Amino acid sequence: AQSVTQLDSHVSVSEGTPVLLRCNYSSSYSPSLFWYVQHPNKGLQLLLKYTSAATLVKGINGFEAEFKKSETSFHLTKPSAHMSDAAEYFCVVSDRYGGATNKLIFGTGTLLAVQP
Amino acid sequence: NAGVTQTPKFQVLKTGQSMTLQCAQDMNHNSMYWYRQDPGMGLRLIYYSASEGTTDKGEVPNGYNVSRLNKREFSLRLESAAPSQTSVYFCASSVEGTGGPMNTEAFFGQGTRLTVV
């Protein structure tokens, strides 16, 4: 079975400073990995995805993530935080549930606060 | 293009009441999912449907039933609501059906905030 661990439940940064949201996964085969963002009282939006192509993946709003198989990590970064980045972020791995079909396994989320 | 539409957006139920959450997608996707979101627990899969006419249990199916009415619609029913089912419910869809890991985006509805008192 696959799983994903988000190492920080809360991260606080100052506007204009770098963002690092950490994610580790376990997988019995080559996974697909995703980062989703959820703004308050909103649905979820895909930020970026890794599906066995380039290991450095660029997403929307200046975010990127690097797939490191040796470290089983898929950390999300952004060089310079903006106030509008304040949201909850979910690291997600796809899983062939029960050997039959795919589904998404969510981490518990990281709440990003951006201070002015 | 509406994407994934959930109704209702908010609902308050009394313990023991029943209700159905509706979900429809207009993207011709094969797979549809119901998740619940609780603080500090991320999203947990309740049921999913890999294709029209098939449904399977996810991580937390107890107390719920689903119907894949057609390719567009996937409903979630609470037969006898309990306070433990107070949560935010999300419906999602993706283009993949059965097969390997998901490679494309899952699209989510805006959520249904359910309170059981």
Structural overview:
- The complex is a heterodimer of chains A (116) and B (117).
- By secondary structure, chain A is mainly β.
- Chain A contains no helices and twelve strands.
- In chain A, the strands form three sheets. In chain A, strands 2, 5, 6, 10, 11 and 12 form a six-stranded mixed beta sheet that branches. Chain A has a four-stranded antiparallel beta sheet with strand order 3-9-8-7, with no helix packed on it. In chain A, strands 1-4 form a two-stranded antiparallel ribbon.
- The N and C termini of chain A lie far apart (41 Å).
- The model of chain A has no long low-confidence stretch (mean pLDDT 89).
- Chain B is an all-beta fold and 117 residues long.
- Chain B has no helices and eleven strands.
- The interface between A and B is medium-sized, with 28 and 31 residues.
Secondary-structure blueprint of this entry?
The complex is a heterodimer of chains A (116) and B (117).
Chain A: E1 3-6, E2 10-14, E3 19-21, E4 23-26, E5 33-38, E6 44-50, E7 56-58, E8 64-68, E9 73-78, E10 87-97, E11 101-106, E12 110-115
Parallel strand pairs in A: 2-12
Antiparallel strand pairs in A: 1-4, 3-9, 5-6, 5-10, 7-8, 8-9, 10-11, 10-12
Chain B: E1 4-7, E2 10-13, E3 19-25, E4 31-37, E5 43-49, E6 56-57, E7 64-68, E8 74-78, E9 87-94, E10 107-108, E11 112-116
Parallel strand pairs in B: 2-11
Antiparallel strand pairs in B: 1-3, 3-8, 4-5, 4-9, 5-6, 7-8, 9-10, 9-11
